[in-house]
Structures are given as structure tokens and as C-alpha cells.
Design goal:
By secondary structure, this protein is of the alpha+beta class. The chain has helices at residues 7-23, 26-33, 41-48, 69-82, 88-100, 105-117, 224-259, 271-299, 305-331, 342-354, 359-369, and strands at residues 122-125, 141-144, 150-160, 167-174, 177-184, 190-194, 204-217, 261-262, 265-266.
Length: 372
Amino acid sequence: MNFGFTEEQEELRKAVRRFFEDKSPMSEVRRLMETVEGYDAGLWAQMASPLGLQAMTIPEELGGSGFGYVELLVVLEEMGRALVCAPYFSSVALAANALLHSGDEAAKAAYLPGIASGKTIATLAYTEPPGRWEIDSIELGAVASGDGRWSLSGTKSYVIDGHVASLVLVAARTPSGVSLFAVDGSATGLTRTSLATMDQTRKQARLDFDGVTGELIGLEGAAGPTLSKTLDLAAVALAAEQVGGAQRVLEMSVDYAKSRIQFGRPIGSFQAIKHKCADMLLEVESAKSAAYYAAWAASEDNEELPVTACLAKAYCSEAYFHAAGENIQIHGGIGFTWEHDAHLYFKRAKSSELILGDPAYHRELLARRIGI
């Protein structure tokens, strides 16, 4: 089994890195995080064409490129490295995956081409005010309206890019169980409120539904397996992002340790700093192994995916958060300032640690899945 990247995958990495270095430098990240929308429409359009990033894992017959999850990992790793402000994770890792695994061919044909082209910004509204990720925590209700449509009432919170999504996939409780619905982002009765978050590079919103019309996706009461698969795939995608961010803060630390002179010598020559950098390297490389293996399992639709997804999300969350914290420590006083980029990575690391469930949640989920 070869876990090395192919020549084509490495070329993809180089192209994506060059694109974001040119189009999304840290000055642009800082500008966008202060805006209400949190992304640039022009950059989003360029990501779709000519790069085709939104189309990566969508089948060709539905307007996509038909690549596997390993190629998506490469893209997300570079996006995490650059802290790109864009509704990519919500549209591709959450919404597109939910549609792809819904078993609803009509819904796929209706919505996936728009996501692939970048014309549709989509998200998945799963968590509610308590912030839990277990499926039994879903209380937002949906009742049949008599015309083949459904009426949704309740609240979803911490919805990634929910304030700008033109398509919202909603997990709701119906008489037969949990179902999945498609809701227009501008639907009557839907109130969207942006949330104040620690990580301003990734926007979240509260969505209040008051008799909002929704279209059933798949079978009523049968969305459990679809949502479980979607969250596993999203966990792998987030782990890839975390690896990219962790690699970047490691590089920042090493570069600073080499150039910062104290007592007449680089601080990297002191044992304490040297050991910090070595420990960070070990954690980052281990995180890469976990994320890459999980991406392979996702690409092959391997039966190990539920286990590797939990493992990758738990380990990569902790590795990124620890590396981001050490990066600030190595930089000393300047690392704590608003002007330095270290704090942006630290905040992204913390928010990513909590999205889809924290490491403790994923360890518990892993234990249940392996029968402990």
C-alpha cells in the first residue's frame, strides 16, 4: 500500500498553494474576517473557474470533476495552511456530501451542479442551541403540509456560513424519525442571525425556522445513515484543514527560532526551544499520517472510515491546537499581539477543535464503534 502522493496530486498542491498565496494573503484574510459576509465573491468564482475546486468530488455527470477524497484532502490542507476565508467546507464537505449520500437522485441532479459551479453556496444545519452532535439531540420539527412539502419550525445554531448560504440542508425530526430537508436560504419564515465567534475567519449563524417550507430529501425518517456518513467525511475534511494549519505554524516557529537572536545566538539553539520545535514536528507528522489514512479510507469507501474519521479528528484537533499554542510561546510577546498572525491560527485551531465535536466526543464515539 503506497501512501505517497502521485505526481498529479503534487501538481494540484502546487497550483492551489500558488493560487492562495497570490489571491488570499494574510492581509486579505484580515480584511475578509472583518466583513459581514466573510468571503470574497470574486475569489469564490475563481476557485470554481478555472480551478474547479468546488467540483472536486462531485461526479462528472452532475457537473463535477469526479476526483477522490485524497485530492480533496490536498485542497483542504492548502486552504487550512492559508486560513482561506470562503464557504468551502460548508458547501463541499457538508452539503455536497449530504446530497451525494442521500440516495435521492432527483435532489442530486437539482442541487449538485450548482455547488460544483460555485453558483450555489450551501451548508448543513445540524446542531441546535445546546451544540450537541448526537443525532438524538435533533429537535427541530417538520410536519407535512399536504402539498408534498413540509413545514419546519425550530432553531439551528452554529451553522457554518448559514448567514450567506443560498441552500440550507436541514436535519429535522418527523413522525418517522430524523429526515433531511432542502430549504431556500431566502425562504419566508427563515431568520438568519450571524453569531459572534472567537474565530472570525469562519462565520457561523443561528437559523430560526417559523413554518419554513422545506423539500424532503431521501426517505422520511431515514436520514440517520446519511448524516452519519456525512459527518464522518466532514471530520476527515476538517482534519486535512487542521494538518495544513499545523504545518504552517510549525514553519513559522522554526523560521522565528532561526532568526530571533537572544544573548548573541538564535533562540533555536537553546534546548527548550529546540525541544518544543521537535515535539511539534512529531505531532504534525503524526497528524498527517492520521489524516492521510482517513482520506484514503474515504476515497476507497473503506469500512474503516467510521473509525479512522474519529481517530483523525481527535488527534489532528489536539495536534493543531497544541502546535498553535507553542507557536505563540516561541514567538514570545509579539505572538500575543493582534498584529501578528499567530493568534489567527490559534483561534482557527480552537474553533476547529470544537466543530463536529471535540476530541473527547470523538474518542467516545470511537470507543462505541469498536465495541468498547
